[in-house]
Request: fold
Amino acid sequence: MKILGILASHQEHGLNAQMLDEVLKNVDSGVKTETIFLENYDITPHKYHEDNPVLDELAQKLMDSDVWVFAAPTYWRELSGVLKNFFDCMRPKFVYFKQNGDTIPGPFKNKHYLSISSCYVSTLENFVTGVTDDSFKTIDRVMSAAGVIKVGEIVLPNTFGMKAIPYNKKKLCQKYAKKISVRKRKDDSTVKRYIQLFFMIAIMALITMGIQLPLSGWIGNNFWLNYASFTIIFFVLLACILHFVTFVKHRRR
Ligand SMILES: Cc1cc2nc3c(=O)[nH]c(=O)nc-3n(C[C@H](O)[C@H](O)[C@H](O)COP(=O)(O)O)c2cc1C
Reply:
């Protein structure tokens, strides 16, 4: 079992480096770790008929690891350029191309990853506006194309003037260290997702019927009015929940 830390900050010993280090030094004994600082590599796109030993070396490190931990600060409300460039250049290694240009997950399918990011804005501002969301979203988009499975996110807002990571984030890093130390099956969240789906539907049905109650004078015992109002209210609730799960699900504090 091996965990690879991928540091994509301008600073080799900054806060993202500290969070990454806190994760890696707390993994279970027997789990191997390695950190690569992407700024140390001259990462350029692969050109046809030309060798690219840097990309080959990095791809081999990815292949030799079971879990990848990306630590990348938020720059300009987006993913740090060095990690974005790494993802752009690794694209032909992350995915296979179909004849029509579509992509399918490549050789790293079913590996796992953890994302770490940080930003200057306050915890409250990040909670409300989601400054770090786009960093996580870009990582998720690339990893999803590559078929790599997400373990979680760690975010550190309020970093202006901060020199060392606070105690609560150290604890969170240690918690994730334990989580990623265990060899995972392909995707062990299926049962969890069905349970979440069951409770989502149960709660939405309850809210829908609750909204229908004050309308009962108008709906009466008419089956089709009951059915139509239930469907419309349920649909609106479902759309809101799906929007939340899809766009606002990232850790913000
Ligand atoms: C080029 C650049 C752009 C940045 N853009 C933002 C930003 O849009 N929002 C923000 O809150 N912080 C921004 N920051 C602050 C970084 O997110 C902050 O410095 C980071 O927490 C430092 O992480 P590190 O110690 O690992 O380098 C930016 C920093 C740099 C260098």
Remarks:
- Residues 223-247 form the longest helix (25 residues).
- The pocket of flavin mononucleotide is lined by residues 9-11, 14-17, 73-77, 118-121, 131, 159 (CB under 6 Å).
- DSSP finds nine helices and nine strands in the chain.
- The longest strand covers residues 149-156.
